[in-house]
Amino acid sequence: MASFNRVILLGNLTADPELRYTAGKKAVVDVGIAVNERYKKDDEVVEEVSFIDVTFFGRTAEIVNEFLSKGAPALIEGRFRQERWEKDGHKRSRIKVIADRLTLVGPRPQPEEEEETVAAGAAAF
């Protein structure tokens, strides 16, 4: 049986990313993104928001940590992975996205040093 596991999402981060490292010193960032869907129902526009957990690894995780913050838009391509565990005798599971690619969307962030240099230069004139 053939299968295909790809997902492309465009949404906004729900919190600031927190970079951590595995025991093997591989960078990891877990973030949530909010994806909005608007549709018309009985002449009324309805908006639904889906919250999706996404995990980034390696250099992509470091880029997410450096350039994105809560509310920032991001285009993510990846695959679904189901996690399973047992808690208090109950089996639990959730589906999350393992990101393979990231495209930064929106205004380009300005490095703080560059902003300070420009501000200092402007003050001198």
Q: What is the strand and helix layout of this fold?
A:
Blueprint: E1 7-13, E2 19-21, E3 27-41, E4 44-57, H1 58-67, E5 73-87, E6 90-104, H2 112-124
Parallel strand pairs: 4-6
Antiparallel strand pairs: 1-3, 1-5, 2-3, 3-4, 5-6
Protein name: Single-stranded DNA-binding protein
GO molecular function, one term: single-stranded DNA binding
Organism: Botrimarina mediterranea
Walk me through what this model shows.
The structure is a single chain. By secondary structure, the chain is of the alpha+beta class. The protein has a single domain, classed as Nucleic acid-binding proteins (OB fold (Dihydrolipoamide Acetyltransferase, E2P)), CATH 2.40.50.140. The protein has helices spanning 58-67, 112-124; strands at residues 7-13, 19-21, 27-41, 44-57, 73-87, 90-104. It has a five-stranded mixed β-barrel. The model is unreliable at 115-125 (pLDDT under 50).
What about the largest sheet? 5 strands, mixed, barrel
Number of helices: 2
Mean pLDDT: 88
| Shape verdict | globular
Instruction: Provide the CATH superfamily.
Output: Nucleic acid-binding proteins
Order of helices and strands: EEEEHEEH
CATH class: Mainly Beta
Report how far the terminal alpha carbons are from each other: 70 Å
Spans of at least 5 consecutive residues with low confidence = 115-125
**Fraction of residues in H or I helices:** 10-25%
How large a portion of the residues is in β-strands, by DSSP E?
over 45%
From the 3D structure, determine the CATH topology. Answer: OB fold (Dihydrolipoamide Acetyltransferase, E2P)
Give me the count of strands.
6
